[in-house]
Target: Hydrolase
Amino acid sequence: MADIASLLTPSECTMLFIDHQAGLAFAVESVDRQTLLNNTAALARTGLVFGLPIIVSTSATKVYSGPLMPAIQMVIPDVEAIDRKSMNVWEDEAARAAVEAAGRKHLLVSGLLTEACVSFTVLSALAEGYEVSVVADACGGLTPTSHDLALRRMASAGAHMTSWIQVLLELQRDWTRHETYDGARFIVETYGGGYGIGLSYARDMITPPPLAGSPK
Model:
């Protein structure tokens, strides 16, 4: 039987969102900004569906970066952001304490900018013995090159590189897990592009919706 110990398990993971703020998103050139927003919202919904602790930290909200982007806050309305002065979550007492209080040793990290607030936090967490997965398509960098170099540095230090769709599918793993099936499927259909379109099509082909005016 294959060893599945290295696969993500909901009970072991915490999601950490770092500086998903418009003032920083303006500077992102490594990925289309709407795609980045779509991916981050999908990741946040994934955290809710699987019951993960979700920690949001922002920086410089009043002087430059602004609040957490509304499209993300709408997904997680009950999560209050912890604002920092330091670029590194690990160097902010309140933000770091929130991560530690979650009591889980695998962090799923996304944020802006990849070259700074994301990588500094990831490198510090790794040094403290945390296992870290960087959700790379929910991170944005100043340029494609600098974003890629930051991802490589984190990977060299021991971080795992992943994507929001892999996180969702890895946590679900079995579509017969009924307690998360509807939520996971909704996320794929809403944010998953062609994959989501295919799921919707398959559902409607298997159980076509009733025609207008026909008895249900």
